[in-house]
Amino acid sequence: MRVWLRSLILPAALCVAAALPAVAAPPASAPAREHLAPEGWESSYHDLHYSPVVKIGDRVIVSGIPALEGADDEAKARWLFQQLQAHLRSAGASMDDVVEMHSFHVARDHEEFRRRIAPVLKVHREFFQDHYPAWTAVATSGLYSKDASFELRAEAIIGSGKRAKARIAPAKTP
């Protein structure tokens, strides 16, 4: 009986192994991945176990930065965008290289969301005067940093800001 079971199990195991994809080493041309943290953000990596900045080739991913410092939402937004600049700089990128942002705003309803995003929009215009990044803004009931009323994450492509073109019709005047 053992010989008979072996003759069934071995071919079945070979069929399963042949169906599984082979685990291959990454190609030599794969971009390197670097984990970075600007000065003052090292505890994010060591204590909270996330990378404030990940650089893969020319792509830079900035984790959510909570708006923590400042007397009001406008000052907090300005501090946040300054922190974004520092995060990008740690990877060799600039604000001109930002291609996408996601912001999360603590709000109970649409009216509060619109009120809370207004100071962020004002400060956003100071940091992005042309060639605006794609941006998704989301209302949420809470953030990890309980004292933050909003948080921002971003992605950048190093050098993309030098050759940016806006192919958008001019704004209509009323």
From TrEMBL:
Pfam family, any one: Ribonuc_L-PSP
RNA-binding as UniProt keyword: no
Signal peptide: 1-24
Keyword Hydrolase: yes
Record's protein name: Rid family hydrolase
Keywords: Hydrolase, Signal
Gene3D superfamilies the UniProt entry points to: RutC-like
InterPro entries referenced in this protein's UniProt entry, alphabetically: RutC-like_sf, YjgF/YER057c/UK114
Any GO molecular function: hydrolase activity
Organism: Lysobacter gummosus
